[in-house]
Specification:
8-stranded parallel β-sheet, TIM Barrel, NADP_OxRdtase_dom, 12 strands, alpha/beta, two-stranded antiparallel ribbon, oxidoreductase
């Protein structure tokens, strides 16, 4: 079953850089570089907000990748509200994503309304199913428990759950309200994507997955491309400390192209027609932006080979399907 049209047919609209976009269903334009907003443990809110302002005002980011689970949406909303009020930004020129966590698997509109309230906006450009999982619902004085666990610290899964229920409900919300422009998924495998397409007759706008030189996801990316699904790369630099930037090959290529190692990674993903979502809390680093180059096909292949035979994950949750 192939429901696709090529979403990258106008990949370089506006030239290579922050203005480059791909097209989601319905003609929604998604910028190819977005700012990841997960909050590191022990992080400082003021540092996060300074970094976000630097991304939006100094580095020309127009794509914010958020999520209920990240616990940063209220901070993002505070920054956006201030910039909108001062007319330094227009909501219509931003692409804002959020995600529904598995503890809201069959009532995602509750999570959506929380996100819209905290972000201080009235619609999302993209709403994503964060994981294909269904957690038991447990409430405490702080609200819905994100990851309920048993005595062995394993996530408690709702035995009646089906991850496609979440996706179907997101489609219903999109079709019956003005709160969502496009619906996507995250951490889906090829069999899961195939089941989704077969049973719903639709294709998700995106599949957001961990993707970097040590985890190039070649087969999954090809499957998505052949079916018109945009691939988004989270943790493109690895986990904390950006270990991907320390790979000898990446450092050698950076020297060869006279750019920084991070530029090699960003251009590697763009060359593969993958949306990249780097994360940083360093405002000064963000202000420097990226250098866009024409990475040679041979160099893309060399980078792919780093993780093709022995892939390495940095984000490896206990409830992930690959841990089954």
């Amino acid at each position: 079953m192939n429901l696709s049209s090529d979403p990258f047919q106008v990949l370089m609209k506006g030239g290579v850089g922050f203005s480059s976009v791909a097209f989601l269903p319905g003609g929604v334009q998604i910028p190819l570089i977005g700012l990841g907003t997960a909050f590191k443990a022990g992080g400082r809110p003021e540092e996060f907000k300074r970094a976000l302002k630097a991304a939006l005002l100094d580095a020309d980011y127009r794509h914010i990748d958020a999520a209920w689970y990240y616990k940063t949406e209220s901070m993002i909303g505070e920054v956006l509200d201030d910039l909108f009020l001062k007319k330094k930004l227009d909501r219509r020129n931003l692409f804002i994503t959020s995600k529904v966590w598995p503890c809201f698997w069959n009532d995602p509109e509750i999570s959506l309304n929380h996100s819209l309230h905290d972000l201080r906006i009235d619609y999302l450009d993209l709403y994503i199913q964060h994981w294909p999982a269904c957690f038991a619902k447990v409430d405490d004085e702080f609200g819905r428990v994100a990851v309920p666990t048993d005595s062995r610290k394993n996530a408690v899964i709702d035995p009646s759950g089906d991850y496609l229920v979440t996706y179907r409900k997101l489609l219903d919300i999109k079709n019956s309200t003005g709160k969502i422009k496009a619906v996507g998924v995250s951490n889906y495998s090829i069999p899961m994507l195939q089941r989704l397409m077969d049973e719903t007759g639709t294709i998700p706008a995106v599949n957001q997955v961990e993707l970097h030189p040590y985890l190039p996801q070649l087969e999954l990316a090809e499957f998505c491309k052949s079916n018109g699904i945009i691939v988004e790369a989270y943790s493109p630099l690895g986990s904390l400390g950006a270990p991907i930037l320390k790979i000898p090959l990446i450092k050698e290529m950076a020297a060869s192209y006279n750019v920084m190692p991070v530029d090699i990674i960003i251009n590697y993903l763009l060359k593969r027609e993958i949306v990249c979502l780097p994360r940083s809390s360093n405002a000064e680093r963000i202000k420097k932006g990226f250098t866009f180059i024409d990475l040679k096909d041979a160099d893309v292949e060399k980078i792919n080979n780093l993780g093709a035979k022995s892939p390495k994950r940095y984000i490896d949750k206990i409830w992930a399907y690959w841990n089954d």
